[in-house]
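User: Predict the structure for this protein chain, please.
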Amino acid sequence: DVQLVESGGGSVQVGGSLKLSCVGSNYIYSSYCKGWFRQVPGKEREGVASIYIGGHSTTYADSVKGRFTISQDNAKNAVYLQMGNLQPEDTAMHFCAMSFQLPCLGRDERAYDSWGQGTQVTVS
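Assistant: Here is the predicted structure, written as structure tokens:
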């Protein structure tokens, strides 16, 4: 099974920045679609950003457009999320996900078959 490990979460002041990283292991080929999701206790998981293997197709939730940037390194089967101008409403457990099947459905979590354990982001 593919294993995903996130890192880079933490506590930051309002307006600050963080970069999340996620690296997959035990894979044969790079995933077609990579995404970041987040969840606050008691709420549904939200798709934050996604990127297709070709790198030309990215999607973002309206709440993070202009502040977050998703990127990837297919050679490492890694995905990153650069988060800027962080706000208290960005506080959540952030998860990376990867899909090894097509089609790539962007931020639709049903398309993803591998998930990380999550990394906490706290903004205050």
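The first strand starts at residue 3 and ends at 7.
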